[in-house]
From TrEMBL:
NCBIfam families for the chain: ABC_phnC
Keyword DNA damage: no
Keyword field contains Repeat: no
GO molecular function terms noted in the UniProt entry: ABC-type phosphonate transporter activity; ATP binding; ATP hydrolysis activity
Matching PANTHER family: AMINO ACID IMPORT ATP-BINDING PROTEIN, PHOSPHONATES IMPORT ATP-BINDING PROTEIN PHNC
Gene3D superfamilies per the UniProt record, alphabetical: P-loop containing nucleotide triphosphate hydrolases (3.40.50.300)
Protein name: ABC-type phosphate/phosphonate/phosphite transport system, ATP-binding protein
Coiled coil: none
Keywords, alphabetical: ATP-binding, Cell membrane, Membrane, Nucleotide-binding, Translocase, Transport
Domain ABC transporter: 4-231
SUPFAM superfamilies cross-referenced by the UniProt entry: P-loop containing nucleoside triphosphate hydrolases
GO cellular component terms attached to this protein's record: membrane
Length: 231
C-alpha cells in the first residue's frame, strides 16, 4: 500500500549547495527506518522532500503508485521543536492533526466531528497520554510534549510517518521514552516510518533498518549488525 520509492533524488539549493546527490532507496509498506547522519548530511532536506514541503531538483518520489508533488494528507511529520500550542490541552493539540486530513482552505473554521475527536483520543492512548489529555501542553515535560506531537501526527491518520530529529532536544531517558512510543505507534498502525536521529546509541536500540547519509549521499543501508562503522 504505502511503500515509498525514492529514485535518483538530487536537491540543489541556490544553484550551488548540493544537499542531496542522486539518492535512491525503497521502503516497503510498514517498515521502520532510522535515518542517520551528521549535521548537514541532508536528513532534513530528504524529509522535507518526502513531506512535499520542497520539490526535488531532479528525481522522483513515489508513495505506492503516486508521484509526490506537494504536501499530502497521508504523510505526517513530527518535528524536533514539536510546535504545540502551549496554552491548549494535550487533547486539543492532538485534535489539530485532523486539520491536515481535510483539504479545507478555511481550516480555521473547520468544526471537528465525532470521528476527529475519537481519533484524537485514540492517538493519545497510543502514546500513553490518555490520562493527561486535559493537561495544558506547557505543563508537560519535554518528552510528554513530543508524545503529544506524535499523537497529533497520528490524528492525521497517515500512511507515512516522518520524524525529523524528534529526540534531539531531550534528555536520554525522555528520548528513549519518545522512541518507544514512536515505534509502538508505527507497529500498531502499520505505518511506514522514517525517523532521523544523530545519536547512534538510540538508533541501535530502536532501529531495524538504517539509512546513513553523509554529504548528501547514501553511505549505508542495512541492518543493525552492519552498523558498527557508522559515526
Ligand atoms: P539541522 O542540522 O537540524 O538541519 P541546521 O542548523 O542545518 O539544522 O538548519 C536549520 C534550518 O535552516 C533548516 O530548516 C535548514 O533547511 C535551514 N538551512 C540550513 N542551512 C541553510 C542555508 N545555508 N541557507 C538557508 N537555510 C538553511
Ligand atoms: P541535516 O538535516 O542532515 O543536518 P540538512 O538537510 O539540513 O542536513 O542540510 C543539508 C545541506 O543543505 C547543508 O549544507 C545545509 O546547509 C543545506 N541546506 C539545507 N536547507 C537549506 C536551505 N533552505 N537553503 C540553502 N541550503 C540549505
Amino acid at each position: 500500500m504505502a511503500s515509498l520509492t525514492v529514485s535518483d533524488i538530487t536537491k540543489v539549493y541556490g544553484g550551488e549547495t548540493v544537499a542531496l546527490d542522486d539518492v535512491s532507496f525503497e521502503i516497503p509498506d510498514g517498515e521502520f527506518v532510522v535515518l542517520l547522519g551528521p549535521s548537514g548530511a541532508g536528513k532534513s532536506t530528504l524529509l522535507r522532500l518526502l513531506n512535499g514541503l520542497e520539490r526535488p531538483t531532479e528525481g522522483e518520489i513515489r508513495i505506492g503508485d503516486d508521484r509526490v508533488s506537494g504536501t499530502r494528507s497521508d504523510v505526517a511529520m513530527v518535528f524536533q521543536m514539536h510546535y504545540l500550542v502551549e496554552s491548549m490541552s494535550a487533547y486539543r493539540n492532538a485534535l489539530t492533526g485532523a486539520l491536515n486530513r481535510t483539504d479545507t482552505v478555511d481550516s480555521v473554521f473547520t468544526r471537528y466531528d465525532e470521528d476527529d475527536k475519537e481519533m484524537a483520543l485514540r492517538s493519545l492512548e497510543t502514546v500513553g497520554l490518555l490520562e493527561e489529555a486535559n493537561q495544558r501542553a506547557d505543563s508537560m515535560s519535554g518528552g510528554q510534549q513530543q508524545r503529544v506531537g506524535i499523537a497529533r501526527a497520528l490524528t492525521q491518520d497517515p500512511q507515512l510517518l516522518l520524524a525529523d530529529e524528534p529526540v534531539a532536544s531531550l534528555d536520554p531517558k525522555a528520548a528513549q521514552d519518545v522512541m518507544h512510543y514512536m515505534k509502538r505507534a508505527a507497529a500498531e498502525r502499520n505505518l511506514t516510518s522514517i525517523v532521523s536521529l544523530h545519536q547512534v546509541n538510540i538508533a541501535r536500540e530502536f532501529g531495524e533498518r538504517f539509512i546513513g547519509l553523509r554529504d548528501g549521499n547514501v553511505v549505508f543501508d542495512g541492518g543493525k549488525d552492519d552498523l558498527t562503522m557508522e559515526d
